[in-house]
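Can you make up a protein sequence with its C-alpha cells?

===
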Amino acid sequence: MTDLKDEGFDRRSVPLEALETSWTGPDGWSFRKLDWQQDKPRGSILFMTGRADFYEKYLETFHDFHEQGWNVTTLDWRGQGGSGRCGPHPHVGHIDDFATWVSDLVAQFEQWRSSHPGPYVVIGHSMGGHLVMRALTEQRIQPDAAILSAPMLAPASGSMPEWTAQSIAKLMCLVGRSERRAWKPIENPLEPYVPRQELLTHDAERYADEFFWFRDRPFVRLGPASWRWVERAYASTRKLRNRKRLMQMKIPILVLATSTDELVDHATIERAVHWTPNAEMKLFGAESAHEIFREVDDVRQAALAACYAFLDRVAPEA
C-alpha cells in the first residue's frame, strides 16, 4: 500500500496520463470526461462530484485512488463544469428534474462497466452521493461497492421547515423564476471568501485550488442553484427516505460524514445508514467540514484509510 500522503502531486495540473475526452449521452448531450487508467488495474472507480463541482477539484483524490491501483473515471454532470448549461445563465445551476441526472448516471455506468475491468466501485460526493443513492435504491445500477462522501440525502434544514422551503421554491417556479438563481453569490467569483470556506474545508490551500481553476478554465465556474433545482432537490431527496427500499439494498456502502455538516442533514444520513443492511459510516466531527476529500491532511488521510480498508474487504484485488 502506498503512503497516504504524496507531497509531489500537483493539484493544479491535470496529469499527463489522465485522458480528457467527451462522452455523448443517449439524448446527444455532450459530457466532459476524464479517464485515468492503469496498465494492470485492480478494478475501476466511477467518481461523481457534487453540486456546482467540476472534476479538477478532485484531481488529488483521483491520484490517491490511482496510486492504490484503481482506474478512475469521472465526468462533469449535465449543466456543470465543462458539460454545458441547462439554463440561460452560465453561472446558475439549473436542471429540469433530478431524474435527468439519474438517467445520465445510469447510461454512463453501463458504458463504463462495459469498457473497464471490475470490481466496480461508484463514489459520489454530496449531490453526487444523492444521485448515486437514488440509482442504487431504484436498482438501476449494480456496482460491487459504493462510497458516499457527505451525501445530500436531505439538505441542511437551517431555521426553515423543509415543507416551507419547498413551497417557496414552488411558488417562485410558478411565477416564472424557475431558471433564476435561488440565492445571491456569497463570494467574489475569483477570490476566496472565508465564510464559504468554513462550510467546505478547513484547508485554505485546497479551498484556493477552486479559484485557481476559475482563472485557468473559466468555463468550469458555476454559482447558485436555480429555484427549480431547489424545488426538485427537496422532491428528490424525499425519495431516499423510503425505509423499505433502503432495507432491500445489498450492495456494500461506506458513508463518510461529518456531524457538524452545515450543507446536508446529518440525522438523515444516520437513519439511512441504520436502515441499509450493508452500510457503514466513518464519522468525523468539528475537525471536518462538508468536502471531506478536500480537508486538511489528517482528515483526508483518515477518510482515505477508511476507503482503502473498506475496498480491501468488499472489492479485493483478484
